[in-house]
Write a structure and sequence with these properties.
two-stranded antiparallel ribbon, alpha+beta
Length: 90
């Protein structure tokens, strides 16, 4: 899949990959293409904190996935990007 078509979870920003394996689930059990299985299950968000709290949860994962990135760089990217995600848009 090319990067322009890459799907990202609209809550945590995680890349969703080429299959529906990481998709969350709707209340009826069907797959939800907007949110990952870690953020959205059975039609409900599994995380009910603030955007800032979500960023702090995600920083270590982003650093682990990008070994040349510092926590500060990861946090800066997320602070700019997360407000564009559906879950956090005003």
């Amino acid at each position: 899949m090319n990067e322009m078509n890459q799907k990202f979870c609209q809550c945590c920003g995680m890349p969703m990959g080429d299959t529906d394996e990481l998709y969350g689930t709707n209340a009826d059990g069907s797959k939800n293409e907007e949110y990952c299985k870690y953020c959205f299950e059975n039609g409900k968000f599994t995380f009910n904190g603030t955007m800032e709290e979500m960023i702090e949860i995600c920083v270590p994962n982003m650093v682990a996935a990008n070994p040349n990135m510092s926590e500060e760089e990861a946090r800066k990217i997320m602070i700019e990007w997360f407000p564009t995600l559906k879950r956090w848009k005003n």
